[in-house]
């Protein structure tokens, strides 16, 4: 039988025929991972949602987060990045990694991804930087991702009310232009494509009654009672 692709196995794809990612072209890489249902988007912005964190905590064994591929440019020479991660409940940590799958430049790049956990309910956030590993570094870096975020830190974002959180990211590139590509969740422009991973929770409609409304409802109830009693008194007198 054909050997299993070691790289695909590292990111949680168990059954994959041999694929030499180091020698593959940009289009071949995209096509290969799309066969594994790994999403690919050309986007300078993306949101990552995981809206059921408490159920993820129920896993007894470590598992891989769903990977996805993105390009920060719109040309055929734009570098390809893969975002993946692990969740290790027994060791009480979560970790993420970024791998540069392909680049047109022959020289070594030093891309850094800046990540931030955020929560709609609190002003707290957790931020850190991770080096975008090369394909050559991936086999030993993805086995045990160096940066580990304690799950307790993530729990503090939720305040025990709602287990919804997301991740924002930015790539700081060492390319010739030394530009910094922002990937944020604030701007929602139809001109700029946005990559949404996972499903955000629907906006919850909060039933809030102000103090004035409550007092008004109380006064109305009192008036109705008085009118009701007066009606029966009038009816009794008529008899």
From TrEMBL:
Domain of life: Eukaryota
Transmembrane segments: 218-236
UniProt keyword list: Membrane, Transmembrane, Transmembrane helix
Name this polypeptide is given: Uncharacterized protein
Source organism of this protein record: Orchesella cincta (Springtail)
């Amino acid at each position: 039988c054909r050997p299993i692709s070691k790289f695909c196995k590292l990111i949680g794809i168990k059954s994959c025929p041999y694929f030499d990612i180091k020698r593959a072209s940009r289009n071949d890489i995209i096509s290969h991972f799309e066969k594994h249902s790994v999403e690919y988007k050309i986007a300078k912005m993306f949101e990552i949602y995981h809206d059921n964190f408490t159920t993820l905590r129920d896993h007894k064994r470590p598992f891989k987060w769903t990977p996805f591929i993105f390009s920060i440019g719109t040309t055929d020479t734009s570098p390809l990045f893969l975002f993946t991660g692990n969740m290790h409940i027994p060791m009480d940590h979560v970790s993420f990694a970024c791998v540069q799958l392909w680049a047109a430049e022959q020289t070594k790049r030093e891309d850094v991804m800046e990540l931030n956990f955020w929560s709609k309910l609190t002003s707290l956030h957790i931020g850190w930087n991770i080096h975008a590993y090369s394909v050559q570094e991936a086999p030993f870096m993805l086995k045990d991702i160096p940066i580990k975020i304690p799950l307790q830190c993530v729990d503090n974002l939720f305040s025990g009310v709602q287990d919804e959180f997301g991740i924002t990211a930015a790539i700081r590139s060492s390319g010739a232009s030394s530009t910094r590509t922002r990937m944020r969740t604030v701007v929602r422009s139809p001109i700029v494509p946005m990559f949404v991973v996972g499903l955000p929770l629907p906006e919850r409609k909060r039933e809030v009654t102000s103090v004035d409304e409550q007092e008004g409802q109380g006064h109305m109830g009192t008036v109705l009672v008085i009118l009701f009693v007066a009606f029966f008194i009038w009816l009794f007198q008529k008899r």
